[in-house]
Write a structure and sequence with these properties.
This protein has strands at residues 2-3, 12-17, 46-50, 55-59, 68-74, 85-90. By secondary structure, it is an all-beta fold. The protein has a domain at 27-78. The termini are far apart.
Length: 91
Amino acid sequence: MTIKDFTASDTIIFEQLENTGLNLVFDSTKLAIGTMTQGAHAGLAQFLYNPATGSLMLDTNGSITGGVVTVALLEHAPTLAANQFAVEFYL
């Protein structure tokens, strides 16, 4: 999916249903530019962003090999901030 018109006032919302197995962890300190490091959370899902390409990825298993999936491409590679992300959990 390509997001063509993302702005500083927009929010990206990810929804997780119970028992999906993704084990998403949301730590806003890890979303600050330059601190989203692949493998930082062993065995836990984490979001990664490449500001050079605008690629937003989900690493479903942390430091374990594989598991990285591109979930969106943000056109024009905007700068992202922690307050632009939300993870919602549903039972």
